[in-house]
Amino acid sequence: MILAAGLGTRLMPLTANTPKALVRVSGIPLLEIVIRKLTREGFSDITINIHHHAGQIIDYLAGHSFPGTRINVSDESKMLLDTGGAILHARRYLDGTEPFLVHNVDVISDIDLQALYRANLSGQHLATLAVSHRNSSRYFLLDDKGLLCGWKDAANDKTKWSGKPIGNAKPLAFSGVHVIHPNIFELMTETGRFSIVDAYLRLARFKPVGSYFHTGNAWFDVGRKEQLPVAARYLSKHPEMIA
């Protein structure tokens, strides 16, 4: 699933009349960059949620072909549902026996998605979060087994714990990519608009939510306007990332 419904406020004024998913880097829309990466790495059944300028994304998909790929659209035009609500709303496309991968549309990286997927399978976790050491305003807190135990908003000095506070919890930045087992749908009590982070913190009290630490990978949050030229310069030297 590609989370592509956001308002893109950090990219204003670019997103005043264009959905974030269709903002371009190196001449290619962010949505297409992520679709290309997913298909290169063996993901052929893709769900995309839409809200902001939803019609433009529908028209874009209708006018472009991605051979061998099935694309579903989860429409949130009536109400933006946040990350957790978006995943729950798209349940009909994601439910089954196999884990599914979720990728933010504004993340460009060379993270090995199949390795992340295998990490979830081997750990038998409810979810597995791609994380790394880098400066961020928000962090997942992990215990000594790499399991989720809390969340920290460093900008506002706020911390949420899944259970009891852990003194030596490691703060790691979330990379905007995670793998989720469909069992999560049976465990969700949340409805409507909600963050998947809140669901993870609640569920991690009795179901392991694991992590996949990636280091040395190229990673860009292009949901921030200042990162667009930075990513473009890197991609000009590494065209294989958007091939």
Question: How are the elements arranged and paired?
Answer:
Elements: E1 2-3, E2 24-25, E3 28-29, H1 30-40, E4 45-50, H2 54-62, E5 70-75, H3 82-89, H4 91-94, E6 100-104, E7 107-109, H5 113-123, E8 127-132, E9 138-142, E10 148-153, E11 158-161, E12 170-180, H6 184-187, H7 196-203, E13 209-213, E14 219-221, H8 227-237
Parallel strand pairs: 1-4, 1-6, 4-5, 8-13
Antiparallel strand pairs: 2-3, 6-12, 7-14, 8-12, 9-10, 9-12, 10-11
Helix pairs in contact: 3-7
Kindly describe this structure.
This protein is α/β, with parallel strands linked by helices. The protein has one domain: Alpha-Beta Complex (Spore Coat Polysaccharide Biosynthesis Protein SpsA, Chain A). It has helices at about 30-40, 55-60, 80-90, 90-95, 115-125, 185, 195-205, 225-235; strands spanning about 1-5, 25, 30, 45-50, 70-75, 100-105, 105-110, 125-130, 140, 150-155, 160, 170-180, 210-215, 220. The strands form 3 sheets. Strands 1, 4, 5, 6, 8, 9, 10, 11, 12 and 13 form a 10-stranded mixed sheet that branches. A two-stranded antiparallel ribbon has the order 2-3. A hairpin with a 4-residue loop joins strand 10 (about 150-155) and strand 11 (about 160). Helix 3 packs across helix 7 (about 195-205). The longest helix has 11 residues, at about 30-40. The chain starts with a strand and ends in a 6-residue tail after the last helix. The model has no long low-confidence stretch (mean pLDDT about 95).
